[in-house]
Amino acid sequence: MKNKRFFLYFLGLVAIGIGINSCKKQSQSPIEQLFTGGYWELASVTATYYTGNSVDSTVNLNTDTICQKGQAFTFLTNNTCTYTNFDCITQTTQAASWSLTPNQLYLQANVVCKDTSAKGSSIPFAYAQIENLGQFSLVLNIGDIQPNYSLTQKRIIYQYGFIRQKSTTGN
């Protein structure tokens, strides 16, 4: 009888332990983990020009022939990020914060990059639509990505394609 009570007591403790352990939250969602598993090297930039919802033209801004410098986006688990050599200008940005919108469809990164615009700098990924995210590829749309627009409005959407590279720093 004592062994039976001990066994039931032991099973109860195991069940409570499993219940408590299953309630622990992960520090990051699986989507956030995809961002932080290495660094993302820029592979392509495409500019698509629209009038309303009609495509006027698409221009491939081939980064490997225009720029010999590797451009990379790095996301860390502490929700900071950097961008290296944005717009083919030798630079590593100051660490900035990044997050995903609650629906996890948009990236918000306040990384300030030097660029060739009249202002001299921009925050290109302040609100970027995640078109594709996988183990080895990331595609972000920036520019005129708002869902509502006039059918006569001219707009440009830039598509940045990245390929995941293994991290050499152990991120």
What this model shows, in words?
The protein is an alpha+beta fold. 18% of the residues lie in helices and 39% in strands. An 8-stranded antiparallel barrel has the order 1-3-4-5-6-9-10-11. Strands 7-8 form a two-stranded antiparallel sheet. The N and C termini lie far apart (54 Å). The mean pLDDT is 85.
Topology:
Elements: H1 2-22, H2 30-35, E1 39-51, E2 54-60, H3 63-66, E3 72-75, E4 80-84, E5 96-100, E6 106-109, E7 113-114, E8 121-122, E9 128-133, E10 137-143, E11 154-165
Antiparallel strand pairs: 1-2, 1-3, 1-11, 3-4, 4-5, 5-6, 6-9, 7-8, 9-10, 10-11
Question: Features of this protein?
Answer:
alpha+beta, 18% helix, two-stranded antiparallel ribbon, 171 residues
User: What global shape is seen?
Assistant: elongated
Task: Classify the helix fraction into a percent range.
Answer: 10-25%
Beta percentage is 35-45%
Order of helices and strands: HHEEHEEEEEEEEE
Alpha carbon gyration radius: 23 Å
Count the DSSP helices. 3
Measured distance between first and last alpha carbons? 54 Å
